Amino acid sequence: MTNGKDKKDKTANKEHKEEKHSEKKIGITVKKSENFSEWYTQVCSEQGADLVDVRYGVAGFVVHKPWAFKILRRIYDLLDYEIEKDGHEPFLFPTVIPEENLIKEKEHAGFAPNVFWISHAGEEKLERRLALRPTGETAIYPMYALWIRSYKDLPLKRYQSRITVFRNEATTRPFMRGREFMFYETHDVFATHNEALAQIKTDMKIMNKVTYDTLKIPFIFFKRPKWDKFLGAVDTYASDTIMPDGKRNQCSSTHDLGHNFAKVYGVEFVDENGERKHGYQTCFGPGIYRIMAALISIHGDDNGLILPTAVAPIHIIIIPITFSGKPDVNEKVIKKCKEVEELIKKTTYSVKVDFDEGTPGYKYNKWELFGVPFRIEIGPRESESDEVTIVNRITKEKKKLNLKKVEMELNQYAEEHEKLLKKRADEYFKGNTKEASTLKEVKKIIEEHRGFIMAPFCSMEHEGEKCADKLKAETQGGDVLGVKFENAEAPKKGQKCIICGKEAKHIVYIAKSY
Amino acid sequence: MTNGKDKKDKTANKEHKEEKHSEKKIGITVKKSENFSEWYTQVCSEQGADLVDVRYGVAGFVVHKPWAFKILRRIYDLLDYEIEKDGHEPFLFPTVIPEENLIKEKEHAGFAPNVFWISHAGEEKLERRLALRPTGETAIYPMYALWIRSYKDLPLKRYQSRITVFRNEATTRPFMRGREFMFYETHDVFATHNEALAQIKTDMKIMNKVTYDTLKIPFIFFKRPKWDKFLGAVDTYASDTIMPDGKRNQCSSTHDLGHNFAKVYGVEFVDENGERKHGYQTCFGPGIYRIMAALISIHGDDNGLILPTAVAPIHIIIIPITFSGKPDVNEKVIKKCKEVEELIKKTTYSVKVDFDEGTPGYKYNKWELFGVPFRIEIGPRESESDEVTIVNRITKEKKKLNLKKVEMELNQYAEEHEKLLKKRADEYFKGNTKEASTLKEVKKIIEEHRGFIMAPFCSMEHEGEKCADKLKAETQGGDVLGVKFENAEAPKKGQKCIICGKEAKHIVYIAKSY
Fold it and tell me: What pLDDT is recorded for position A23?
């Protein structure tokens, strides 16, 4: 490991000489079930899937390395496709926001204490400070005020993708919380509130398609309690999944902004009758970072990542099994590897042969850490056969791949991989959602890290906040996530709020958060 | 136009009412050949191809609107494809750079007076200032020092794409110079200088493939004079094209960094013999913004943009020609439009029917402004035929498209479009490259805005700078661009430097710059 290496150290030269022909130390040394936090750190690091480098030198700012970047880019692409299919057009706004715009909406101004401020250009002090965007609303809506004139300009549906935003978070963690993090935002304006609410349902469907159908990350879409809405929103809806330590991970949020921002920034239109009205606004943020964190954590196992085919940068890694002192045999093996690679390149699967130095065993471990769905092993026997050995990342089962039916068989294996990934995630999610009727039960479950807890609760309006605060204190951090957005469970007759004992109006979900 | 509109103005309501059913005013009111600067401004604005909005409210920071963003995204994709094929892996670095890293390389520290500085997080003053990256070297190379250990780690070839960088430019212009602008950078490390030089040739080939072969933007790849190299580089190579006002537009640069940065940031490796050495570094920056500016300016005509098929967000726009009071006929027209759209969707061409309100004439103008390569017109006659009318954006010629051979014929028309685009650009480029033997000739050509001028010159080393300064003064801004990187012209026997009269060592290219 290069960690902490001092470049000026004269002994380093010697150390390098010795290590020159040795393999880089890789592998995860803890079990995910026993020490999730350490497991996660290791998976993200060079000894794991080499996803990020946290040694950039500015706390909370990390380098995204190629393997992570390729996965993240695919998540962006999946979302872009759905978002554009839903009628959104892409744009790109400046990274900086003038201070007066950032704080114009009084609730939203709550972001100000956590933004980074640009004060100077060179040695010259700026007339007014510029914020690095913590999110896009206050950059974008003043322009919407210029762009929207008549009802014919509505709905206006735009998004920006592959951008980063900046918040001065107290604690940071790769893909969970960063001072600069990858972001995605749609910003829509409608003539009516009904259209805005319909968009929120569409946002939910897009999340479902990308995150659950494609990436196999189960989640519940909640309506958040009023005390936990986005700064400036009327209502916030959000999807939460359960992490291996039982905590909820918010994977997206979508906000009903009502007229709140429209009134402040002048987002207005003239309707069919010539009357000037405010637009109803929504914004949707699939949490690129949080989806990545869920992907790593929920699917991964003690050997590293496990990737769904939709985002795996490589679907199939081919490992040549060669033997020293057998150049003729090895030549055949290498030839066969290249043949199989060419064969697979003609299919929809991405493939690579690992011709690097290193033992087959080292390579197996490496590509398991990286989560590549399949590995093909080609040794002397396979080099003369129409069948090669294929190993699935989840099951580690060795199966045969008939090279004469390669696409058909790969389709079948890939389908099994996807099904199994979904099954594991679904079982895990279902198994970690429990019901409780009393605070005592909630506390017991939370202590055992059991994910979501359903419980009767008094109110989702502001008057419920006191109970939520008490719940949080009693459970060392249990939050009221909200009620299900669709098919919300109703309390049974006579069920009482687990905190105040008043009649329960809702079955809420409770979990600890990051 | 909404420009300068006062939202609080009570008369605005009335104005809106009147304009409600009228069309937005579009169109370019000047000729490109007569007033390029104004033509460019109009093409970029809402009355043109609606590429940017300059009213963001922070000088030099613009909003990239959907049409521009989609074109830019395709330019990025074209580059990503070639850059990855050449073995580069993508990564993403933080946007911020600690001050001590930015200024560590003494020449490169010349960027410091033009960077934006982050001083505070919330109300808390940062211990050390952070710069918004003006370019990536000083962010990236300290990490390379950690990542590279042995010769086996080389070559290291990485890139970042779809990012922005920040420089406090005095004057700005959409896609030419911005305080935040779209950026692309590769950063490579090699064991030997020869490999580094070979990479520079490869970078040139990639530029040639994307910018010339695909986007039909002719350019010359120069070796820059020593006095015009990148801050911290040993040598700079760059591609320049000619803009309609005769000025050169630098579309890419690639730098031979030698050991300059490696020594400062400790980018070292242990070679086969166990010896510690510095890496040879190169970096390559295709100028996304400048390529876009060239695309707009070189291909565009008095009616707006003209797009190559490789980056056109829409290849074919279908315009229904309907008549008021003829609902039966119109229904057939609309049906036919949808049929043709479905037919074309099965090909490799992207298509859209413009069903918006507005006359066909308005729509013709609009999509010509946007540079869509082909328009199909479908009226009552076409609605009952297997042939429709297709019009090319460059020639405006009306031709027939046989719907029974749609893909084949579209291929043919597209090929013609590409050929013509290339021919126009080549002729323009060639026609604006002149030779001169004396300063007087140079001055005469420069006054007439004739693009590149080839002339004999004394030296590309630092001793030539005095002559370059004098040339600039004498010609009100003529710069020595350098000598051709490959197949550089040699001075004839006895030719003298146009400034100092000493024997000429080079034929240099001269042009004014932005």
Answer: 66
